[in-house]
Write a structure and sequence with these properties.
heterodimer; A: mainly alpha; 68% helix; elongated; B: Rossmann fold; 10 strands
């Protein structure tokens, strides 16, 4: 069985990729909302939000990228559900193929489609003035984090895709995940502040707890360590309170309290 | 004695408190057309799903092509092909791409050639490069069945293959099924149309209330059927004959059906050769 896993997956991947290339509207609709957010927050609310030194779009982009992916993966649930409804799943499952290849085809397509969406959003951000001093390695690290995030979230989206009883149920997948910690890591990578010329990583601003004020003192540690250590940053603590709020905070807005 | 392709003994299946199958027994001889009759919700699809390894039975033994469905599902899948109740085709791909996809999944070499041969055989050669979403119901069903023939499965399951088709589409599908049986493929057919079973099947079984209440050849069943059902059988072909006589003979569609049928019988030798060589290549 497993001997055919890769060739089966390649066929499945080719099939769902054709769905994307023949109806590019899925990519367009995935990117429109994050781009609208970018425009809204930078040009409409931008002046009212204090995000510290540096341009606001630099601060905003990591969160927007995750929103892009979170809205993109719901298409995977939708497509899986349609496959299940149309009976093509039954056909695959009654054939001598590696069964997991059916799902892997969808998941890999989701990764590629989201990568395209993310690139589009980054290009728009560049037009809006996003600049990063990040080197090749840091960009690769960002790409890696986004890749893993897409993969993890897509597999989560597979669950409602396979269990939903209606299209609404499949598509209305809760996209709000506790993502603040990931947003902060990407910010730190983009910011690339090895010598801490600017007061350390922007993550403190997402929370106004007393701890954050102590951490804004001259920073002795590399912001990159924050990205990798996974130490309980205020953002991560906040994210466990409410996923929705964490996404809100990742845009840099002040807590409603 | 003929070899047994499908063997079902004391098959039981319940969904929560609903006992769908309460001890189903039947055998299907190799190379024959077996029709399972039953009203909606009788459990026909449940039996098909169990035999095609999609659903686990609660109890009973099922063997397909000599392999136990419960313990050797992978071997069973190599022997069978399923054409489900709804045409399981990819609407965004073209007809040819659908066939190539299945051929590649079944590790058939020269997938393109196999696809073209099947498109020609099912009268879809002109539509092969069009997206399936533009196909009519009959064309979808023919493509669906064509996809099931790839890889030369020895047993084909057809779950209500003509439901929702117009009379001409049904005739096309019947022709296909008869051609399959001539090639030695075992066909397991479910239907709710009595005339369909009457026309096609070597053996017929009627599933009612979770058990097979009668099974046998048409001649055997004729003597057993209650009068009310005999009347139903007799009336439906009559209406169909009227329909085909009034509509069918003058339309282009039915002409095509006629010519396709002729082509199939005349050219069947050469086509058999091409398909046969493909089969050899795979092994």
């Amino acid at each position: 069985m497993n001997t055919h896993f890769f060739s089966n997956t390649a066929v499945m991947f080719g099939r769902t990729m054709r769905h994307i290339t023949r109806s590019p509207d899925t990519i367009i609709t995935t990117t429109i909302m994050p781009i609208a957010f970018l425009l809204l927050f930078v040009y409409v609310f931008g002046g009212a939000i204090q995000a510290g030194p540096g341009s606001y779009v630099n601060y905003l982009l990591p969160g927007i990228l995750l929103i892009t992916i979170a809205s993109g993966i719901s298409y995977t649930a939708y497509r899986l559900f349609l496959d299940l409804q149309s009976g093509i799943f039954d056909r695959y499952h009654s054939m001598p193929i590696a069964r997991s290849s059916v799902l892997w085809g969808h998941v890999l397509t989701s990764v590629v489609a989201n990568a395209i969406s993310v690139v589009v959003v980054v290009l728009v951000a560049l037009l809006m003035g996003f600049r990063s001093s990040a080197g090749v390695l840091a960009w690769l690290a960002v790409a890696g984090i986004l890749f893993l995030f897409t993969l993890a979230l897509t597999w989560l989206a597979v669950i409602p895709g396979l269990t939903a009883k209606s299209v609404d149920g499949a598509a209305a997948f809760a996209e709000n995940q506790p993502v603040t910690a990931i947003v902060n890591s990407i910010r730190a990578l983009f910011a690339q502040q090895p010598r801490c010329r600017v007061p350390c990583a922007p993550s403190q601003r997402t929370s106004r707890s007393p701890r954050s004020s102590t951490r804004s003192e001259p920073c002795s540690r590399n912001s990159r360590s924050e990205a990798t250590s996974g130490s309980p940053s205020p953002g991560a603590a906040a994210s466990s309170l409410s996923p929705l709020r964490s996404l809100w905070w990742s845009t840099g807005a002040k807590s409603p309290e | 004695m003929t070899e047994v392709a499908i063997q079902v003994k004391a098959l039981r299946k319940s969904f929560k408190d609903t006992h769908v199958l309460k001890g189903v027994d039947f055998d299907v001889a190799r190379g024959s057309i077996f029709a399972l009759l039953g009203s909606n919700g009788a459990g026909k699809t449940t039996i098909v799903r169990i035999l095609t390894t999609l659903l686990k039975p609660d109890d009973g033994t099922t063997r397909v092509d000599g392999f136990d469905v419960g313990s050797q599902p992978a071997r069973v899948r190599e022997s069978i092909s399923l054409t489900g109740q709804f045409a399981a085709v990819d609407e965004i791909l073209t007809g040819r791409e659908n066939l190539i996809m299945i051929a590649k999944l079944r590790q058939v070499k020269s997938a393109g050639k196999v696809a073209d041969a099947l498109l020609a055989r099912f009268g879809l050669a002109d539509a092969g490069s069009r997206r399936v979403s533009t196909y009519s119901g009959g064309m979808r069903r023919r493509l669906d069945i064509a996809m099931s023939l790839i890889g030369a499965p020895r047993i084909i399951f057809l779950d209500e293959p003509t439901t929702g088709l117009d009379p001409e589409g049904r005739l096309e599908v019947w022709q296909v099924i008869q051609n399959l049986a001539e090639r030695g493929v075992t066909v397991f057919l479910t239907t709710q149309y009595l005339d369909e079973a009457e026309k096609l099947a070597d053996r017929i079984a009627i599933l009612h209330d979770g058990v097979i209440i009668v099974s046998g050849t048409l001649e055997e069943l004729r003597k057993m059927l209650p009068p009310a059902k005999v009347e139903y059988v007799a009336r439906q072909p009559t209406l169909e004959e009227i329909f085909l006589a009034v509509v069918g003979s003058d339309t282009v569609g039915s002409d095509q059906v006629g010519s396709d049928t002729k082509k199939d019988t005349v050219g069947s030798d050469t086509k058999k050769d091409t398909v046969g060589s493909d089969t050899k290549e795979q092994r």
